[in-house]
Write a structure and sequence with these properties.
210 residues, mainly alpha, 10 helices, 0% strand
Length: 210
Amino acid sequence: MAVNPLTMTLLVLVYLAATLVIGYIGYKKTKNHEDYLVAGRDSHPVIIALSYGATFISTSAIIGFGGQAANLGMSLIWLTVLNIGVGILLAFVLPISIIARATAMFMGLCACAFLPAFAIGVYAKAPSTKAALYSMVTGAVIWFVWTAFFHAAEAKPLGHCQAIFGKVTILGAPWTAVDPIVITLPVSFIVVIIMQMRCGNDRPAPAASP
């Protein structure tokens, strides 16, 4: 069944609006790090389970996990067990600030690398594999560069810019406070749109009849 672009757009807008409202309510109720990271340690187990499920079903899981599950069947459940085990181990071993920062970095990278390609796959009548590939590579590379050399929150602890250029970030304020997703996601969308316009109508040559 074909996806109605108008319906999909309305659903996305409603979802974004609900996310903004919930985020604002949470922001107003957040007073310290404990409130932000573990919801004040006062969350119902069902809410925690749903939150974990929503986090696990991320961009990378939507794009890659479903196909592998179809190919490998229930044997892929060991990947889920491994994810849960490693996640719990890291949660107890690493400092709280690193867990929060790493989660934000991972979600930002997934959005920059996969979201434009996912959008083309949903909305384009003839999605181009080359457009998706170019967008994914561009998004990942620019995200890593901006994270390591421009955004102070990650560049300072990583230390790559300091080691190469002798300073924490290449540019000064306000660029040091600009999140990588703000720069990278628009560029990744531009790349996928341009490549889709150039390659979207490409078709492999039909095989010659015997």
